[in-house]
């Protein structure tokens, strides 16, 4: 399970302070040393860890906490709040355009789960928001990506717009937009091409698509299992495209937590959704507070 090691360590550390009727400055410092090590071991970005520890210390050592009747519990509350804030404070919703259709560009490296996530998001929009999305197959380079999206589209009962793998992505999106308007789709989800590594050709193509469709949302799909690499990928995409949200995939794996806990702080882009399996319904809005509580037990 994701975050298992981190959760176990933090829970063990916090257990010591939880029941304390009196908490000394030294107690808080000792606890935070352990918390720091646990976060670093979970592959959380070191700058993020440093800031986190400073924030918790400042608040936990404040008068109100130390002089409260249950200082141990108050300190834990501070840790919980700061952990939540690290991942985004509140649940970030997907954009809704003033004028339909809302256009969402899905971007990310190959293998991150972009195509699967595109279908999952379509299904989510239909089921939870009663929307009528059109899926657009723009990944013309990865063998079988178009077929994969078509198969997934069938599975979730959603139409897929495609011009095959010989067409130019810019032409595809242009025609897809006309099609979406004619067919009254209220969301257009564009599955763009990924690469194994970030390269200029990929970014130029994405920038071209972006300038044509003027998306309301650019969702970056990242594999949570890749830890700090995911954060670096997010920074690079964000720099080029001004990403508006992140989807963390593979949270069902034994990811240590580094990506989930660092990506918002490093890129200032909210995590909007989490994917927790290969099946289409293993996808949900990301709730920072629930994730923090899950980690702290
Ligand atoms: P793309 O290259 O980014 O379009 O990636 P795909 O959508 O083809 O996904 C790559 C692989 O990851 C596929 O085998 C998916 O079934 C799998 N996958 C996607 N999301 C998840 C997830 O949340 N959990 C797990 N365990 N596997 C996932």
TrEMBL record:
Q: Where does GTP bind?
A: 108-115, 191-195, 249-252
Q: Where is the SRP54-type proteins GTP-binding domain?
A: 101-297
Instruction: List UniProt keywords, sorted A-Z.
Output: Cytoplasm, GTP-binding, Hydrolase, Nucleotide-binding, Ribonucleoprotein, RNA-binding, Signal recognition particle
- Which reaction equations make up its catalytic activity? GTP + H2O = GDP + phosphate + H(+)
Q: Where in the cell is it found?
A: Cytoplasm
EC number in record:
3.6.5.4
GO terms, molecular function: 7S RNA binding; GTP binding; GTPase activity
Annotated Signal recognition particle SRP54 helical bundle domain residues = 2-87
In the record, the note on similarity to other proteins reads:
Belongs to the GTP-binding SRP family. SRP54 subfamily.
Domains (record comment): Composed of three domains: the N-terminal N domain, which is responsible for interactions with the ribosome, the central G domain, which binds GTP, and the C-terminal M domain, which binds the RNA and the signal sequence of the RNC.
Self-association and partners: Part of the signal recognition particle protein translocation system, which is composed of SRP and FtsY.
Protein name (record): Signal recognition particle protein
| Source species | Shouchella lonarensis
Which stretch of the full-length chain is present here? 1 to 297 of 451
């Amino acid at each position: 399970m994701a975050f298992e090691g981190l959760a176990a360590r933090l829970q063990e550390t916090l257990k010591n302070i939880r029941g304390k009727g009196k908490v000394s400055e030294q107690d808080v410092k000792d606890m935070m040393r352990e918390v720091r090590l646990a976060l670093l071991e979970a592959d959380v970005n070191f700058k993020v860890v440093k800031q986190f520890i400073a924030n918790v210390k400042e608040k936990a050592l404040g008068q109100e906490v130390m002089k409260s009747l249950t200082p141990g519990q108050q300190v834990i509350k501070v840790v919980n709040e700061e952990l939540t804030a690290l991942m985004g404070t509140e649940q970030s919703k997907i954009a809704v355009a003033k004028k339909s259709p809302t256009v969402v560009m899905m971007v990310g490296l190959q293998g991150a789960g972009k195509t699967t996530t595109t279908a999952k998001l379509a299904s989510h929009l239909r089921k939870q928001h009663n929307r009528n999305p059109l899926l657009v197959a723009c990944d013309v380079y990865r063998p079988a990506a178009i077929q994969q999206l078509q198969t997934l589209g069938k599975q979730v009962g959603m139409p897929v717009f495609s011009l095959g793998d010989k067409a130019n992505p810019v032409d595809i999106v242009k025609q897809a937009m006309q099609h979406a308007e004619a067919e009254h789709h209220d969301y257009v989800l564009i599955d763009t091409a990924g690469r194994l590594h970030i390269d200029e050709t990929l970014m130029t193509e994405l920038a071209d698509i972006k300038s044509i469709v003027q998306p309301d949302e650019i969702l970056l799909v990242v594999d949570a299992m890749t830890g700090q690499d995911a954060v670096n990928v997010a920074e690079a995409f964000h720099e080029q495209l001004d990403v508006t949200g992140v989807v963390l995939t593979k949270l069902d794996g034994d990811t240590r937590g580094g990506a989930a806990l660092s990506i918002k702080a490093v890129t200032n882009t909210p995590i909007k959704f989490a994917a927790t399996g290969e099946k289409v319904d293993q996808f949900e809005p990301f709730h920072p507070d629930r994730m923090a509580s899950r980690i702290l037990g």
